[in-house]
Amino acid sequence: MIATMQSWGAHVSLAWWQWMGDMSIQIVAFVVVVAVVDRIWGRYAWPQQRVWLWSLVMLKLLVPPTLISPISVTNVIADIAPDVAAGVSPIDAPLGIAATSSNFLFSVLTVVWLTGLVATLVFGAVRYRRLQGQLRLDCASTLPCELGPAVQRAAQQLGLRSLPRVELSRALRSPAVAGILRPVIYLPRRVIDESTPEQLQHVLMHEMAHIQRRDPLIHALCLLVHAAYWFHPAVWFATRRLATLREEATDRMVASRLAEGRLGYRDTLLSFAERLLDEPGVSQGSTLQPRYGHLGFIHPQSPILSRLAQLERHSTKHATLRRATNGVLVAILLTCVLPMGRPVAAPTVDPIAAGCMVTRLRVMQAMAARDQFVAHSPARDLPARAVAPATASAD
Fold first, then answer.
1. Which of 31, 82, 99, 239 has its CA 20 to 30 A from that of 225?
2. What is the pLDDT of residue 233?
């Protein structure tokens, strides 16, 4: 029983690390392709269109590495240079995993991977629960009366069907959205005290745009995928890139609703960034740094500069052409680059050897038919009967 379980565990570990080994190679190549496309097309694309491009990386991590497509790049490489394709294809032994590594090594690697996965999930869950608890204890019970109309106006401008819950916080330095299924907007008390009505409107619209775009839920799903590949730097890079682009896409949504007031929204972002930089201890980080939707000011790699630059080149020209181009790019990546597996080629047989085998088979069949005919033929005893009379006459 124990030996059977050990054998089963070894097979599972081997299969899993074949998956991980293949995916680790493929995801590096896919991230490089997406980064090059984003670098070229990002000058003309809107942030949401770039979010779709980078979301393909998360999709790539969910599909099996053996996924094939008749028009994939790997098939083209296989037709042009079979030797190169053999090194690219994950099916043909990308790392020689099955042939060169021991079961014990894969068992140890599986334990290490599971430890990292559990640690990442537990750390994220504890951090999130602690944040929620601190926010509940810190938040005031009632909102100022003047905040109610501002919340309603922001929701109407974004087209929200229901008003989200808004709470005040004394410890937060930056507005934030916390919660996955029922997100809540948390506003620092000083934002209300030091902001103009226009700035407060911009802050509320930005946080509500996160809720309308379902960014907290999408971010949580990305963290789950990230937890499975906690060891891979390319996944870290893609997750961080997606977080930055989500902020830019949120700014784009708010700017499109404000129309001519988008320059004022840009000034609001700049004003909040200046306030945070003037505060002592910001470089060491805040005591509360929510990761489930925030303005992106207190993050160690704050994307505020790219966000301000994106608002400066805000343009609605050639909207149809931009959407069509982005759709074509996504379709090409989805059908030609994302499937990197290749069908397993049938074993090749030497035609000369095959011909010899066929000839031998036919000869053996003929010999078997002859033996069967001789065995059942009535003439098999004729020589014996013919010899008997001669023997008798001789006597």
1. 99
2. 94
- Per-residue pLDDT at 249: 92
Say how many CA atoms lie within 13 Å of 2 toward its Cβ: 0
Specify which residues 189 forms β-bridges with: none
Q: Which domains does the chain have, with CATH numbers?
A: 1-101+318-367 (no CATH), 137-315 (3.30.2010.10)
- Per-position DSSP letters for 261-327, written without gaps between them: GHHHHHHHHHHHHHHHHHSTTSTT--S----SSB-SSSSTT--HHHHHHHHHT---TTHHHHHHHHH
Distance CA 17, CA 10 (A): 11
User: Diameter of the chain by CA atoms?
Assistant: 142
Q: What is the pLDDT of residue 92?
A: 42
Answer yes or no: are the C-beta atoms of 228 and 47 closer than 8 Å: no
Query: How much is the pLDDT for 308?
Result: 79
Mark the ranges of the chain whose per-residue pLDDT is less than 50.
83-101, 282-301, 346, 380-382, 384-395
- Residue 394: which residues within 8 A CB-CB, separation 6 or more? none
Q: In 63-102, which residue ranges form alpha helices assigned H by DSSP?
A: 73-80, 82-88, 97-100
- On whether the pTM is more than 0.85, the answer is no
Task: Give the pairing type, strands 184-188 and 165-169.
Answer: parallel
Q: What is the pLDDT of residue 320?
A: 85
Sign of CA dihedral 172, 175, 181, 182: positive
Q: Are 114 and 267 in contact (CB under 8 A)?
A: no
Position 286 scores a pLDDT of: 42
Cα–Cα distance for residue pair 34/26, rounded to 1 Å:
12
Q: Which two tokens stand for residue 235?
A: 């996944």
pLDDT of residue 258: 87
